[in-house]
Automatic annotation (TrEMBL):
Domain annotation Acyl-protein synthetase LuxE: ranges: 6-370
InterPro entries per record: ANL_N_sf (IPR042099), LuxE (IPR007534)
Name of the protein in question: Acyl-CoA synthetase (AMP-forming) AMP-acid ligse II
GO biological process, one term: bioluminescence
Pfam families listed in its UniProt record: LuxE
Gene Ontology MF annotations: long-chain fatty acid--protein ligase activity
Origin species: Secundilactobacillus collinoides DSM 20515 = JCM 1123
Length: 374
């Protein structure tokens, strides 16, 4: 078992390292190899992840009959909340990421990680390509707790690794156990402005709402140097008030002199190990037509499915996001999310959470999953 696990990890890590930079059109060229690795991973997970095996068998989908990655059973997000999804024994003290619990406080997703070799590689290379296409490092001002404060948050590890891999000596997080340290953020912004040193603000959506409220209250504005950018990791769900994207963009422009084309949003979650990014900064740097849709790395595939039938819909049509992530080696590579999106070629547009009236197919999948794992 140990040797089998090591071989599977090595195969995935090699795929990531061989395809760490991907370009438009590469995805289809790589599909044959992706298919082979995905089927190897499905076979591994089928034989070593018992709840997933039961679920796959209930759909009559086994490694003997599945020949295409598109046919691998999709694990509903609810599975991570109700079951232990892991291909190796869980040990005391093993690293685990927990969801925030905003949608279901009594059942939080658990995603276990015996090691982070693949997770870190999957995070590092797309970050460089889509967040910092024009430079190797930048001053990163983190507006989200790092992993020392919240070790069970995938986003906290993400922030810590971003600073470790790409932050200069002025980079740090500005969040303690009581919240954002606004005055320290202001001091760092003023210093960067004085030194004409580009900065990147990095935080969840509502981190910026709170920071913008603070700046407005104290009548503060900044003219940040060229090359500065704002990285929004998402996360509006379950919060006390909402703000439209257009209002957010205008407030960012007013507060920091960062325009829409220097703003980037990420798609990630507890249950997956890879992230997707807006193409915006990549397009600006390479002087090509700017797109605000999201790109996924070469070891990920995204399909958009009809929420009722879970069958694929044509490009341009709204549906539920199905996420296939080779970096998710330890749990389930194919995830049925709770998010709506629209596919645009090899990119996709994220629309937000699925509504109750739109989730018939998800509900059926969840019922089937839980019934065979009672």
């Amino acid at each position: 078992m140990v040797k089998e696990t090591q071989i599977m990890q090595q195969e995935i890590l090699k795929y990531i390292l061989d395809h760490k930079v991907s370009f438009s059109g590469d995805i289809k060229k790589q599909d044959k190899l992706f298919n082979r690795v995905a089927l190897d991973l499905f076979d591994y997970q089928f034989h070593n992840n018992l709840p997933f095996k039961r679920y796959a068998q209930s759909q009559r989908k086994t490694p003997l009959v599945i020949k295409k990655w598109q046919d691998i059973p999709l694990m509903p997000i609810q599975g991570y909340k109700q079951l232990t999804l892991a291909t190796t024994k869980i040990y005391d003290g093993e690293a685990v990421f927990l969801s925030s619990g905003t949608t279901d406080p009594n059942h939080r997703s658990h995603n276990y990680h015996p090691n982070f070799d693949i997770w870190d590689a999957s995070m590092k290379f797309p970050f460089k390509q889509y967040v910092l296409p024009d430079r190797d490092e930048i001053t990163i001002l983190g507006l989200f707790p790092d992993e020392t404060i919240n070790p069970n948050s995938s986003l906290s590890r993400y922030v810590s690794k971003a600073i470790q891999f790409f932050g200069d000596t002025n980079s740090q997080t500005f969040v303690n156990k009581t919240g954002i340290e606004f005055y320290k953020v202001i001091k760092s912004l003023k210093q960067a402005e004085k030194e004409q040193r580009p900065v990147m603000l990095l935080g969840a959506s509502f981190s910026y709402v709170h920071l913008l409220d603070f700046l407005k209250k104290h009548e503060l504005q900044f003219n940040l140097p060229a090359g500065s950018r704002l990285f929004d990791t998402g996360g509006f769900k379950g919060l006390s008030r909402t703000i439209t994207e257009q209002k957010l963009f205008q407030s960012i422009k007013n507060a920091f002199n960062i325009d829409r084309n220097q703003y980037i949003n990420m798609y990630g979650m507890t249950e997956i190990s890879s992230q997707c990014y807006d193409e915006t900064l990549y397009d600006v740097y390479h002087r090509q037509q700017i797109s605000y849709y999201k790109k996924f790395p070469a070891w990920v595939r995204v399909r958009i499915l009809n929420p009722n039938t879970l069958q694929p819909v044509p490009d341009g049509q709204k549906g539920i996001v199905a996420y296939y992530d080779l970096a998710n080696w330890h749990s389930c590579l194919a995830i049925l999310t709770e998010d709506l999106g629209i596919k645009h070629g090899e990119s996709f547009e994220l629309l937000g959470r699925i509504g109750g009236a739109e989730s018939k197919g998800c509900s059926i999948a969840i019922d089937q999953l839980l019934s065979v794992n009672q």
